[in-house]
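This part of the workshop introduces the protein records we will be handling. To make this concrete, we reproduce a full record directly below.
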Amino acid sequence: MTEKATSEAPTYGPEETTLESAKAPSTEPSGEVAASECPGEAQALTPQEPATQEPVPAAPTASKPAPPSEDVPSAPLLLAVEDVSDNSVTVSWEPPERLGRLGLQGYVLELCREGALEWVPVNARPMMVTQQTVRNLALGDKFFLRVAAVSSAGAGPPAVLEQPVHIQEVIEAPKIRVPRHLRQTYIRQVGETVNLQIPFQGSPKPQASWTHNGHALDSQRVNVRSGDQDSILFIRSAQRSDSGCYELTVCLEGLEARAAIDILVIEKPGPPSSIRLLDVWGCNAALEWTPPQDTGNTELLGYTVQKADKKTGQWFTVLERYHPTTCTISDLIVGNAYSFRVFSENLCGLSPSAAVTKELARIQKAGIIAKPKGFVERDFSEAPSFTQPLADHTSTPGYSTQLFCSVRASPKPKIIWMKNKMDIQGDPKYRALSEQGVCTLEIRKPSPFDSGVYTCKAINVLGEASVDCRLEVKGKVMRRVLPRTGE
């Protein structure tokens, strides 16, 4: 008994109503009074109690006598409206307590417009369903519904809805969807445009309205355009007076939704009100200033302090986004005179102008005279000493070779090279060099005859020193070629 059925709304012409009623099985026993404007009275009627207050609606009359009450089912139970849309209605009910001795053939659903006297069957034949949807209804329709259980012996008493069904447009509660970037304070600069598009939903079309700080908008400065799904607030050139809380209200059939958007219009701040030079000592200068009277409609991010040398006139930044109103500037150059200026800063940037000190900070030279100690010249005189001696060396005849050693002495020593204790200076076979204390002896294309002990001697006024090494020049082995026998 949980089946569903769908039916179209019946027509309501008097002739068509009579024909359809004749085709459909009787939905009320003979003698029952049809429901009119008071459905509660119709529900109370029974087949054995004919009505005397109102006329009987159009319905087929029974040519045979009324069946015994045990053969017809009782009225269905718990008739209720499940759903109402703008063109349909769905009702449901429970089976009757008594089905009758002949068994149940189905149910007949009937409809009666408010103010009419005739009940029109929705389904021409009984249907074994306990839920039925009536479609193709028009907006504004208002009618009563009743359902009766039918057996082969006839229709039992109907169950009637206590309240009429009113077909009207379905109302969807309004709802505003604020974009993420507008859920926090929306900041714009003076002169920029403000263009807020706020989507909303609701059916039918809701009414949207705006307020600024609880008051109506200035139509000369603010333009609003609301559509079916959004509302747009537009300001061509924002001013600081446009800052505040803008509230959007969407109303529909007594329901409303609200959304608040905070707008802050800012501009660059003014310069500090005053600045003065507190003190100058050593290479330091102390400054003090007062905050600006106009912060640009927002909080300050700090101050920028700059200095300029009187000689060059170029400004250099010393401090940035500095929050206190006093500071000490150090590392100033002795003998120079400095000017100082301070800018205010907020989200829009630095103030257009700065507060400049009227006085110059002159960094004076100290009056203390330095008395350096007497300079004692160090004596770097030193007798010759070899830091790197000569090393024994083996050479091949015909290939030039070199001998190296290093000496340290002051004043610069005289270098003498000897072979086997004999001075070899002036011999074109040898070439002696001395640079940065490194002594070199080059032997050009030595032969076995050049083998021997070589000595390097360094001499200056403080003394002398010498080092030795052995050079061996290996000769080539000559093989004698013997004549072959038989030649």
User: Anything to note?
Assistant: Helices lie at 14-23, 39-44. The chain has two helices and 36 strands. Confidence is low (pLDDT under 50) at residues 12-65. Residues 88 and 135 are 4 Å apart (CA to CA).
